[in-house]
Specification:
This protein has about 240 residues and is of the alpha/beta class. Helix content is about 35%, strand content about 15%.
């Protein structure tokens, strides 16, 4: 099963618009990432997992998670980590066996992993130039340290979000993407389009092209991990769950 691990939906850009695009490009399924207001879009047949924005510092978090977990496609939460690097809600995620989508800041991982060693984490948007706030060498060392936490994965996603419409070069992404491949390996990396962040200037197919060009020629077994197997394992997606 080929899975796009990072999608968003709105009333304007609904699953109905993306479904034929995925089908033309031989993708079977997608992971929806968004606020609680996006939950109704989870009813789309090709959406196989849902990640919801949640405040990990809020006292109401357990009640929110109770509500989210009533949905069979709910898998975990995303959080920006703008303040406390160890919000109290991390313990609740670990206790429930939920996943955590992180910003592309590998320096956050060692402290979280030391306290919650079983927590499954994924770095979002690895390789997106505008989010690489630190010099490459520093980021590379941080990723190497983070990679010692075995449950950690990363998404090569959102590459063209800031440079759609052909205003990008694969060289913009390649150093970071290649280092992620060397450090984490394909069985801990997954592709995500970040659709529709780059519309109308960019396209879903352009986002896939940026990913393909940045990783370069790869054997089929490696591509299978990047384009589906890693996402299926991380988000506990059953191979028969996509319509």
């Amino acid at each position: 099963m080929r899975i796009d691990s990072h999608q968003h939906f709105t009333a304007e850009y609904s699953p109905d618009l993306l479904r034929p695009i995925l089908k033309r490009n031989r993708f079977d399924a997608g992971v929806l990432v968004g606020g609680a207001e996006a939950m109704p879009f989870a009813a789309a047949d090709f959406v196989v997992a849902v990640v919801v924005e949640a405040d990990l510092a809020a006292e109401s978090l357990p009640f929110q998670l109770d509500e989210f977990q009533r949905h069979p496609k709910f898998r975990g939460v995303c959080y920006p980590f703008d303040g406390d690097p160890l919000p109290s809600g991390l313990a609740e995620l670990a206790r429930r066996g939920l996943t955590l989508d992180l910003p592309p800041r590998p320096e956050l991982v060692p402290a979280i992993a030391a306290r919650y060693p079983t927590l499954r984490m994924v770095l979002d948007h690895v390789g997106r130039p505008s989010l690489m706030a630190r010099p490459f060498d520093e980021w590379a060392r941080d990723l190497e340290a983070a990679a010692r936490h075995a449950p950690l994965c990363a998404k090569i996603s959102g590459l063209i979000a800031d440079r759609p419409g052909g205003c990008w070069k694969a060289d913009d992404f390649r150093p970071v993407v290649r280092h992620a491949l060397r450090t984490l390996g394909p069985d801990r990396l997954m592709y995500g389009s970040d659709w529709p962040r780059y519309l109308p200037e960019g396209t879903w197919k352009e986002a896939l092209a940026a990913f393909t060009q940045s990783i370069g020629a790869m054997p089929l077994e490696i591509r299978e991990h990047l384009l589906g197997l890693t996402a299926a394992r991380f988000y506990s997606i059953d191979a028969g769950s996509a319509a």
